[in-house]
C-alpha cells in the first residue's frame, strides 16, 4: 500500500501584506475581530466592535504602518523568517528522515498565506495527513486556540476531510530550553553579559488567566527551566510581560515598568529575550528592541541588549525535527528506531 501524502504546516500569527495603512487596517481588522483575541459577548461585543471600527481602525493603522516600514525588508520579518524555517525544516527532514516524503508548508492565522486557504490547497493537492505545528511555545487561547477554531470550521465544511493533528505547545520541551540557553550563551560570548536577564513574554489580560488560560503558567515554567539550564541565581533573572492594551489589568509585572525601576535598584546593564516568540517580528524588533531600550536608558540604564528569537537557527530546526518525529511517528511515517531518534536529537 502506498503511503498517504503527508504535510507539515508551520503556523505563525500573521502580518500585513505591505507596510501601508490600508494593508495594516485589513490585517488588524481580521486579527482584532477574532473572539479569541478580544473576548466578550452581547453588549460587550458590540462595544468592542464599535471601538475597533470607529476608533482603532481609523487612527492606528497609519502609526503601525510606519513601524512596519522601519523593519520591512522586501517583506515582513515574520513572513521572511517563517519561509526560512519552512525551507530549513524541509531540508532537515530529508536528511534526517530519509525515505519519508513529508512536505513542509507555511501558514498564518491572520493575513497571508492564510491557514484556511492553505488547508484547502493541501486537500485539493491530495494531502491526506497534515501535522500542524503552531509556532507558539506557550499555549494561549489568544494564539493557539484560533488555529484549532479554523481547522474545526474547515473540517466541518468538507466531506472526507484530511486527518489533521495539532501540536498543543512545547513550552517545556528539552530541545526548546536547550536552544534558548544556547542562544543566550552565544550572544553573551560575543556581546558580554548584563547584570540581569529579563525574560519578557507577550501579555494577555489577567482575566483570561483567571478563566483558565494556562499561558502564564507555561511562561513561568519556561523561565524556570531556562534559568536552571543557564545556572542563574534568583537575582540574575526575572519574568515580565509586554504589550498590554487598554485599561484592564494584564499579566504582571509589566516589562516597561520593570525597566523603569531597575536602574534605581543598581541594575544598569540588562540582557532581554522573549521566549514567547519563535521568530522576530514587529513586537520584538521595534517594541522590545527599540522602545523598551529607550525606556531603560532614559531611566539611567547603561547597557541594554536584545537577544534575538531563535528564528531559523540550528537549535530551532533541531527542535522542529523532533516535534515532527514525536507527533507523526506511527501515524504518517513508520516508528523510528532508538538509534534513529538519537541521531535526530544529536544532529547539528
Describe the structure.
With 348 residues, the protein is α/β, with parallel strands linked by helices. It has two domains: 6-16 and 76-169 and 314-346, 3-Layer(aba) Sandwich (Rossmann fold); 174-306, Rossmann fold (3-Layer(aba) Sandwich), CATH 3.40.50. The chain is 49% helix and 15% strand. The protein has helices spanning 21-32, 42-71, 77-96, 115-124, 145-156, 174-191, 206-210, 215-230, 255-261, 282-298, 314-328, 338-346, and strands at 6-15, 102-111, 129-134, 163-166, 196-202, 237-242, 269-273, 303-306. Strands 2-1-3-4 form a four-stranded parallel beta sheet, with helices on both faces. The chain has a four-stranded parallel beta sheet with strand order 6-5-7-8, with helices on both faces. Helix 10 links the parallel strand 7 (269-273) and strand 8. It is globular. Residues 335-345 have low confidence and may be disordered.
Amino acid at each position: 500500500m502506498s503511503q498517504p501524502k503527508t504535510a507539515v504546516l508551520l503556523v505563525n500569527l500573521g502580518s500585513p501584506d505591505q507596510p501601508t495603512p490600508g494593508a495594516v487596517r485589513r490585517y488588524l481588522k481580521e486579527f482584532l475581530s477574532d473572539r479569541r483575541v478580544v473576548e466578550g459577548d452581547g453588549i460587550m461585543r458590540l462595544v468592542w466592535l464599535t471601538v475597533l471600527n470607529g476608533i482603532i481602525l481609523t487612527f492606528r493603522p497609519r502609526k503601525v504602518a510606519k513601524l512596519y516600514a522601519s523593519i520591512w525588508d522586501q517583506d515582513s520579518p515574520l513572513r521572511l523568517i517563517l519561509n526560512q524555517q519552512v525551507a530549513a525544516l524541509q531540508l532537515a527532514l530529508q536528511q534526517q528522515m530519509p525515505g519519508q516524503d513529508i512536505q513542509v508548508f507555511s501558514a498564518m492565522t491572520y493575513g497571508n498565506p492564510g491557514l484556511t486557504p492553505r488547508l484547502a490547497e493541501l486537500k485539493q493537492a491530495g494531502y491526506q495527513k497534515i501535522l500542524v505545528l503552531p509556532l507558539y511555545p506557550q499555549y494561549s487561547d489568544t494564539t493557539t486556540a484560533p488555529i484549532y477554531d479554523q481547522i474545526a470550521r474547515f473540517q466541518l465544511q468538507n466531506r472526507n476531510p484530511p486527518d489533521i493533528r495539532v501540536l498543543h505547545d512545547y513550552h517545556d520541551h528539552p530541545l526548546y530550553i536547550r536552544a534558548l540557553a544556547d542562544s543566550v550563551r552565544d550572544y553573551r560570548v560575543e556581546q558580554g553579559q548584563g547584570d540581569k536577564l529579563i525574560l519578557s513574554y507577550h501579555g494577555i489580560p489577567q482575566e483570561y488567566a483567571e478563566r483558565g488560560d494556562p499561558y502564564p503558567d507555561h511562561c513561568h515554567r519556561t523561565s524556570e527551566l531556562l534559568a536552571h539550564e543557564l545556572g542563574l541565581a534568583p537575582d540574575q533573572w526575572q519574568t515580565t510581560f509586554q504589550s498590554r492594551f487598554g485599561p484592564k489589568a494584564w499579566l504582571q509585572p509589566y516589562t516597561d515598568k520593570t525597566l523603569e525601576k531597575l536602574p534605581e535598584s543598581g541594575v544598569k546593564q540588562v540582557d532581554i529575550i522573549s521566549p514567547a516568540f519563535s521568530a522576530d517580528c514587529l513586537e520584538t524588533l521595534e517594541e522590545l528592541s527599540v522602545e523598551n531600550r529607550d525606556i531603560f536608558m532614559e531611566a539611567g540604564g547603561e547597557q541594554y541588549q536584545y537577544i534575538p528569537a531563535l528564528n531559523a537557527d540550528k537549535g530551532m530546526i533541531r527542535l522542529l525535527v523532533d516535534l515532527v518525529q514525536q507527533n507523526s511517528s506511527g501515524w504518517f511515517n513508520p516508528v523510528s528506531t532508538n538509534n534513529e531518534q538519537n541521531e535526530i536529537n544529536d544532529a547539528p
